[in-house]
Amino acid sequence: MYECFLEIAFEAELKNTHEDPECLALAFEQCNENPVTRDASIRELRDMIYERGECEPHRTDDAFLLRFLRARDFIVPRAHKLLVRYCNFRAEYPHLYKNVDLWGLTKVKDIYEGSMLDRPDVGRLTIFRFGTWNPSELPIEDLVRVGLAMAEIGIRQPKLQVLGGFVILDMEGFSLQHIATLTPTIAYQMVCLLGVATPGRLQGCHIINYNWLLNSFFYIFKRFIPQQAWGRIFFHGHDLKSLHQHIDPECLPKRYGGTCRNHVSIGQWFQKIKKYRDEQFDKEMKDLGYLVKE
Question: DSSP string of 102-124?
């Protein structure tokens, strides 16, 4: 039963139509999306792109622009600002995606995990186990590359455009060796992936299992975190009960006091994406610059 659920979930992962009837009601509630005026908002955003000339996105079709409108509650100027940041990020850091072997990103193994439940109250739950990463085996840029690829693939799904999600940053095992890799540039790139320069709806970031080194870690990051985002960052230490006040234990793996069994590693996730992808998926990822091999 569990394996069947995961197979269905991964097939849904590759849907790419904004006419998803299951999320229309949620889109109105969470994104201020009105089906009657949606097309007009998309046209307004497209006109703003051409009139202001602040960015040259690789796509301007309805489905693509809708991602940015949903991420900013259908406030067109804010959606445009996000799109400009997205384009600027891609232009400034092409090495994070251009000619990157998409399936080769499985080498990060279980540093990233995700839940496939995607409930309305939680959305997609992503876990980043920073302390399990060995800097001597993988460059930190690969962690950013994986995060960017996850964001690009996940945001294709209408349900995730509407629901957004939570991030758990597990700092267990975090050491001075990890801090040594955190340049201001890397810190900026990681913050950008949390909805600052990508069309995602981050509901909250929960930091757990940290020690005194967190002060050094966060000092590097905080200068890049927008003021309005601070209300969505939560520190729990080793207090799982505090975490449970924000995220239902039914959505958490056992190690965090939860009961969820459908957490998958990023390696498993990419394997399933590769299995269920279609020609449209390959084309979109290649258009973004990725190498999508058979």
Answer: TGGGGGGTTSEEEEEEEETTTEE
